[in-house]
Every structure is written in structure tokens, then in C-alpha cells.
Amino acid sequence: MTQTVQGVIAREKGAPVEVVDIVIPEPGPNDVVVKVQATGVCHTDLAYRDGDIEDAFPFLLGHETAGVVETVGEDVTHVQPGDFVVLNWRAVCGECRACRKGDTKNCFNTHNASKRMTLDDDTPLTPALGIGSFAEKTLVHEKQCTKVDPDADPAAAGLLGCGIMAGLGAAVNTGDVQRGESVVVFGLGGVGLAAVAGAALAGATTVIAVDVDKRKCDAATETFGATHAICAKDMSEDEVIEAVRELTDGFGTDVAIDAVGIQPTWRQAFYSRDLAGRMVMVGVPNQTDHVDIPAIDLYARGGSIKPAWYGDCLPERDFPTYVELYKQGRFPLGEFVSERIGVGDIEQAFEKMKRGDVLRSVVEF
Predict the structure, then answer these.
(1) CA–CA separation, 4 and 286 (whole Å)
(2) Has this prediction a pTM greater than 0.85?
């Protein structure tokens, strides 16, 4: 049977979000209904609202989510009612050309629910990243649900569903940070600070955090494991690069992570690495940005340049692992929760995000 719940939609480009009635259909054979407990307010949700990702309005926003499986379709075997889960947007298919090669983290045909959630007038909704969880309940494919320890705080655990895993994975998976290496991270929002914490967790002995906001630089060293911070507000690009080199015996870092995705930070990350160093791009550029680097520099500096999609994570492997490390006090997942808010407070949370006043506002249901 269908259910009607409250949810938050973006009805048209740039318009304030609305709290409205959402109709959840009967789950298909491999679908599940999840009762949402907590959902983080991610920059991606703001990008959906502003039409920066696609034009398939209206959107049902929300995707960084933890909750409890309520109802399952007739063929579901992956989870069962009562399971505490973190939702993911890379539910691998096991059949595409990437999966057939064993490269499941790059699956090209990830699963989503077989039915559409709608408004009460039957208008179909586009769920953000295939999830749509700024709602009391949501409908997803069973493989979008990853079981984790039910004793974890839902507000913290749910953040692994997107931004925190993206940054953490950029360091641990994509950048392959090793013990004793040096790392620099440009941009200290939630993704960047997660990359800082991931580099520290992986055993990097020099972790340099760079941002124009001194508050974020202080948080990086005081809470998230950075050994050094560079407040770049009044510095030129070249001065920032030189400052990184001075902290690494003049050579540059083994790994450089751009968690912003604009030309200045991309360039700083590129030139801040040591020769043959690895650069990771996890900050998402907009559709008009370009990167301008002399071809001879691209060739002569060697090493690698890699984009990080979802931190190259495998949810079934990574989500339970980092929840456990969080519970053991070895990964500061809970420190990313800046505030706990209600479903009607999302517009204000977007404004705080744009001002840099929060790492994550988390909607609790």
C-alpha cells in the first residue's frame, strides 16, 4: 500500500525549498522503504535546488542518510525490516563492463528504486542522487542500503553516505596515502576536512590543511589531524605553493588533494606535489570551469592526476569499517555534525553552508 509522508522538495530552479506531502509507492520486487532517522544537508542538495546538476524538477532533496528498513519487496534478500542502514548512491549492478572487470567502484549502471515517489497530485519526483531522503520515509533499491552497527549515532553515520566518504576516500582510496607520507588538502569544508582526517588515519606524518578561513584551519589542526595549517586569505597562489614546499623540505607533498574544484586550487594542488606525486581532485567543478596547465608541466612533473568519484568507495566494505572506527574513537565522524535541525530549517542551513558557518547541519526526524 502507498504511504503519504512529509518531505522537502525543490520545485523550480533557485526557489526556496518547500515541505510538502510525498507519496511513497508500494515497493517493487527489489525495493525497500526506509524510515529516515537523520539526513545531512550537503552542498549537492543546494546544487540540485539551484539547477546546477540537472533540470529534472521537482527534486526530492536529501541523500546523506541513516535510517531503519521498514518494508521490503518480495525479492529482497540484502536487508530485512529492522536493519539500521546508511544509504548509498553507488549500488553496484554486478553486470556492466566495469563490474565484469572487477572494478565495481566504477560501476556504470548503479541501481535505484524501480518506482517513482510523487507529489499528492501524482507529479513524479526526481530523488537527489537516486535517494531523496529529506523525508520521513524514502524508497530505494535494496543495494542502496548498507547495514552498519545500530549503536552508532544516525546523525553521524549518515554522513558517510556522501561528503565525508568522498573526502575520506579521496585520501585513503584514490590517493592511496601511505604511512610516513606527506599530504596537502586545499579547501576545508566537510569534504576537505574528511580528507585531512583520512590522511591522518592512514598514517601520513605531515598533513597540511589550506583554506582562506582561519576557523577552518584551526579546526583542521585541533580536531581533524592536520599537523600544519596555511591560512591563504591574503596570499597569492604562488605564495601558498611555496609555503607547502617549505613544510616539506622544499620538495612538495607525496599527495595533494583539491577539495574545492576551481582553477586556483587545482593549480596549487598540481604544483604543491613532489615530482611523481599523486594529485586527487575531489572538489566538483561547475560546468563552465576549465583547467589551464602548460602541457610541458603536465608531462615533466610525472606522477598521477585522479578524480575521486565518491572517494572510490565500496559502501559494503567502507561504511561498516568507518562506523566502527568512529565508535572506537579513531575517526572523528561525530565532529562533522555542527547542528541538528528540523525539516523546516533547510533553507537556513543552506545559508549557513554558503557562509562557511557549519560543516554539516543534520536534519533529524
Answers:
(1) 35
(2) yes
Q: Rounded to 10 degrees, what is the CA torsion of 249, 252, 253, 255?
A: -170
Q: Helical H runs in 41-129? A: 43-49, 97-100
Domains of the chain, each with CATH number or no CATH = 3-161+332-364 (3.90.180.10), 167-308 (3.40.50.720)
Encoded amino acid at 168, one letter: L
Sequence-separated contacts (24+) of 149-152 with Cβ below 8 Å: 149/84, 149/320, 149/323, 149/324, 149/327, 150/84, 151/327, 152/66, 152/84, 152/323, 152/326, 152/327
What DSSP character marks residue 30? T
Q: What tens-digit pLDDT sequence spans the chain (365 residues)? A: 899 999 999 999 999 999 999 999 999 999 999 999 999 999 999 999 999 888 999 999 999 999 999 999 999 999 999 999 999 998 888 889 998 998 888 888 888 999 999 999 999 999 999 999 999 999 999 999 999 999 999 999 999 999 999 999 999 999 999 999 999 999 999 999 999 999 999 999 999 999 999 999 999 999 999 999 999 999 999 999 999 999 999 999 999 999 999 999 999 999 999 999 999 999 988 778 888 899 999 999 999 999 999 999 999 999 999 999 999 999 999 999 999 999 999 999 999 999 999 999 999 99
Closest residue by Cα to residue 311 from 360, 257, 354: 257
319 bridge partner residues = none
